[in-house]
């Protein structure tokens, strides 16, 4: 397979996607063996698009009848320890753990839609929620993340190198535009199965996103009171400040290969941080590339002005 080395990591190109080498066995195992249940909810995203937030929201929404919000596991646990990363679990040989999860299961992945097996796409009516973020903020967030979790790889501090890779479509789980477009198109074709949300809209009106997710997964809020009270409580529980502070004194979350500090998941949590990292020309170049890729699809980037 075509190979790229970034820092100390190897990425392999398989099915038109760049995969971190460590995850590829998990992806192959999912393609061969994963059997979804119709009650499953898959949280899909390109990395650094708000996955952690979506994990917290979906988990809080779907478990609200099981755990009172004032004693919720999210008060003690990192969202990544509440919602499993499916390829990571499969790569770590924990298929049986996934199989043993009670229904309804919530699982996350970064796999492009085109790489999902037929068991998910064709033969199941499980639900998929995709969160999309302005690619310029994704790129900035990814760069900070790499530097945080791999501080030993000094050359990663060159933002421009990652920027170039992104523009070439050579970053993990990418090209970014293919990852987004696959789910966007699926959400148009199968609106009851694929919900396409945007990080920027979620920031602007989190309560509406919470209600949309609840409705989509089949556990809508009933009554005005529940709406006002519980929706607000979930918005607060999963807010950036709340999650960041709750996690401040904890040791973080287990990644596939190492433990990640909580601070690597909660950095700024805003739209438009790219303005502090890119020149106008750099931003314009990404926008132009992406607009070209999105042409005719009906999809546009939503960017902080
Ligand atoms: P920044 O690095 O721009 O701050 P992912 O979870 O997909 O890895 O994405 C990480 C990004 O989401 C980070 O962006 C992080 O700060 C932001 N984030 C995490 N939790 C959030 C929350 N509750 N609300 C808004 N943004 C959040």
Percent helix: 40-55%
Helix count equals: 14
State the shape: globular
- Hetero ligands: adenosine-3'-5'-diphosphate
Strand order of the largest sheet: 5-6-4-7-8
N-end to C-end Cα span: 40 Å
Count of strand segments: 10
> What radius of gyration results from the CA coordinates?
18 Å
Structural class: alpha/beta
What is the string of helix and strand elements? EEEHEHHEHHEHEHHHEHHHHEEH
What low-confidence regions span 5 or more consecutive residues with pLDDT below 50? none
Q: Beta-strand level of the residues, as a percent range?
A: 5-15%
Family: Belongs to the sulfotransferase 1 family.
GO molecular function: sulfotransferase activity
EC number: 2.8.2.-
Protein name: Sulfotransferase
Structural commentary:
About 45% of the residues lie in helices and about 15% in strands. A 5-stranded parallel β-sheet has the order 5-6-4-7-8, sandwiched between helices. It has helices at about 25-35, 50-60, 80, 85-90, 95-100, 120, 135-150, 160-165, 175-190, 200-205, 205-215, 225-235, 240-250, 280-295; strands at about 5, 10-15, 15-20, 40-45, 85, 105-110, 125-130, 195-200, 255, 260. The model has no long low-confidence stretch (mean pLDDT about 90). With about 300 residues, the protein is of the alpha/beta class. Helix 2 (about 50-60) runs antiparallel to helix 12 (about 225-235) and helix 11 (about 205-215) crosses helix 12 (about 225-235). The protein is built from 14 helices and 10 strands. The longest helix has 15 residues, at about 135-150. Its EC number is 2.8.2.-. Keywords: Transferase. GO terms for molecular function: sulfotransferase activity. This is Sulfotransferase.
